[in-house]
Design goal:
Elements (H helix, E strand, L loop, with lengths): L2 H29 L7 H31 L8 H8 L2 H21 L2 H17 L6 H4 L3 H31 L2 H23 L3 H24 L4 H29 L5
Helix pairs in contact: 1-2, 1-4, 1-5, 1-7, 1-10, 2-3, 2-4, 4-5, 5-7, 7-8, 7-10, 8-9, 9-10
């Protein structure tokens, strides 16, 4: 496998897992007390996602030297690894690993303290994206970085909440599941227009799905019925796939077309 292909694969996979871990931490911060039947599973999924993300991030970091040389043997070149160590990539990796560590600690702790640590970890993790890319090189970084962080927080919350919602619909009583879905959809409907400026086509489709959840599938869960849960989970799975595709495209773009490349 060519070095660049391996690099972008690792980057995309790390995006999917780190956003999942951060999103679950944010979701639990808002909804943990409402979901006694789902929380244990979410803690396990979040923990696994964070551990996998950490492994992928380290692997991708080590591969940067190979990208410089154009072959995997470059990973063993101390000079190239020294260049990577002195680059923004090492700072970014440190912040992301710290954020994942805090998320893991938050997932293991119960109560308000655990939720708080998880949120702090998510913020640290997402803040790492402001150290690389176009915003880090722009003269208006002081303005663009907070906007980027807000954008990423919305993505993490939305993407990270889809799997929890999927589990909630099958593990919690219908009235609880319906209430959580309605609350999430109400936020999503307002958050989506903000993101449309950056990713019009993909999030246009997500807007439709979020609206369906808000006005059709969410209420159907509350009414019950043999197909209500299945239909809702199908829509959530579709949203999850679309967001995962957008994160993969982002990984490709930032690997080959960002200032750091």
């Amino acid at each position: 496998m060519p070095v660049d292909v391996l690099s972008v694969t690792l980057r995309a996979a790390s995006f999917l897992t780190l956003f999942q871990a951060a999103g679950i931490a944010l979701f639990l911060a808002l909804r943990e007390q409402q979901l006694p039947n789902t929380v244990p599973a979410l803690r396990r999924v979040g923990t696994v996602a964070a551990l996998i993300a950490a492994s992928l991030l380290v692997a991708h970091y080590l591969l940067e030297a190979a990208r410089m040389s154009g072959e995997l043997a470059g990973m063993l070149d101390p000079t190239l690894q020294g260049l990577v160590l002195r680059s923004a990539a090492s700072v970014t990796l440190s912040w992301r690993l710290l954020g994942l560590l805090l998320i893991l600690a938050g997932l293991r702790a119960a109560g308000m303290s655990g939720r708080t640590v998880g949120v702090i970890g998510s913020v640290v993790l997402l803040a790492s994206f402001t150290f690389i890319g176009h915003t880090s090189k722009d003269g208006l970084r002081w303005l663009l970085s907070p906007l980027l962080l807000t954008h990423l927080a919305v993505v993490a919350f939305w993407y990270g909440a889809l799997l929890p919602l999927y589990l909630v619909s099958s593990r919690e009583p219908p009235e609880t599941a319906a209430s959580v879905v309605q609350q999430f959809s109400a936020r999503a409907v307002w958050l989506v227009p903000v993101l449309l400026f950056a990713k019009v086509a993909g999030f246009g489709a997500l807007m439709v799905l979020a609206t369906l959840n808000r006005w059709r599938f969410g209420p159907a869960l509350q009414r019950g019925g043999p197909t209500a849960g299945y239909r809702f989970r199908y829509v959530v799975a579709t949203e999850f796939t679309l967001l995962a595709a957008i994160l993969c495209v982002t990984a490709v773009m930032t690997t080959f077309y960002s200032p750091d490349s």
